[in-house]
């Protein structure tokens, strides 16, 4: 099977969004996907894109994606944050996830970033084992924090 990794284009947005919904279902958080298709499209492909996306294509079908953006660390400087990585279940164990992450790493090198970061759910053993094979550094010292939209609006 031939796998192509390429930069996403605006015509891919609805298919990427379906994969996002598939990821949310896998992570047992379907109700958490609240971004509209219009907002998702504008944020990635509008006048001032906030994120970048790479897609994995097999058999003329988008079967995976990585979504990432530039962030900044006061300690490390420019970093790339990998927000999501997902490959459809029937296409896992073909090295597609690794190819998608390699594209993120290539981008980080291209912009001279000092780090690539991402988070993984502690129960997601397949992903953790995949990352262990890549010899990533797991940082148990940090706890991820967040405020939801309601909390932001009420602050």
What this model shows, in words?
The chain has 155 residues and is of the alpha+beta class. The chain has one domain (3-153): Gcn5-related N-acetyltransferase (GNAT) (Aminopeptidase, 3-Layer(aba) Sandwich), CATH 3.40.630.30. Helix content is 34%, strand content 25%. It contains five helices and five strands. It has a five-stranded mixed sheet with strand order 1-2-3-4-5. β4 (77-87), α3 and β5 form a beta-alpha-beta unit. The protein is globular and about 50 Å long. The model has no long low-confidence stretch (mean pLDDT 93).
- Main beta-sheet strand count, sense and barrel state: 5 strands, mixed
Number of domains: 1
Low-pLDDT sequence parts: none
Helix content: 25-40%
The number of helical runs is 5
CATH topology (fold) name: Aminopeptidase
Provide the β-strand percentage band: 25-35%
For the record, what CATH class applies? Alpha Beta
Distance between the termini: 51 Å
Write the CATH architecture name.
Answer: 3-Layer(aba) Sandwich
Side-by-side strand order of the widest sheet: 1-2-3-4-5
List keywords for this structure.
155 residues, alpha+beta, Aminopeptidase, 5 helices, 5 strands
Secondary-structure topology with pairs:
Layout: E1 3-7, H1 13-26, H2 37-45, E2 52-58, E3 61-73, E4 77-87, H3 96-110, E5 115-117, H4 125-133, H5 149-153
Parallel strand pairs: 4-5
Antiparallel strand pairs: 1-2, 2-3, 3-4
